[in-house]
Amino acid sequence: MLFHAYSVYGGSCTNSIDKTLVKLINLSHGDDACDFGIRYARSSFVQHCTIPETLECEMTDQGYIKTDSYQKTTDHVIFASGDNTTRMRTVANAVAMGTTAGRTVNKEIIEEEF
After folding, report:
1. What pLDDT, on the 0 to 100 scale, is given for residue 34?
2. In sequence order, what are the residues at sequence separation of 6 or more whose Cβ sits closer than 8 angstroms to the Cβ of residue 38?
């Protein structure tokens, strides 16, 4: 069983988690405990096309395209960013990752010798 502490309106509480179900939250400031029937789940991820496989990009165990901190894949000329590379599926994160990839591509083009 896992235990986590949270702040609740200036107080704190501890909840008891059995696998994916929050069973009980005990409030430390003396209020009655609340019974919660909340379930949490991590859905599986599947790439929506075969382009990464066709380009022979390495994938993570979770099915995402493997990238470094500059959004480079295992093929040094292919960059990937956004939902296909991370569980952090938000517009803000996709924009930040795309900006990183674009900045890196720009740097590499500038430094390239012809």
Report:
1. 58
2. 21, 22
State the Cα–Cα distance between residues 108 and 82, nearest whole angstrom.
21
pLDDT at 38: 58
Closest CA to 104 of 81, 73, 70, 80: 70
The residue extents of the domains of the chain are: 2-39, 51-111
* Distance in angstroms (rounded) separating the CA atoms of residues 97 and 87: 13
Q: Which two tokens stand for residue 79?
A: 């960059």
**pLDDT score of 5:** 47
Question: In a 10 Å sphere around its CB, with 0-12 CB exposed, 13-18 middle and 19+ buried, how is residue 79 labelled?
Answer: buried
State how far the Cα of 80 lies from the Cα of 68, in Å rounded to an integer: 10
Instruction: Give pLDDT < 50 ranges for the chain.
Output: 1-18
Secondary structure in 3-state letters for 33-56: CEEEEEECCCCCCCCCCCHHHHCC
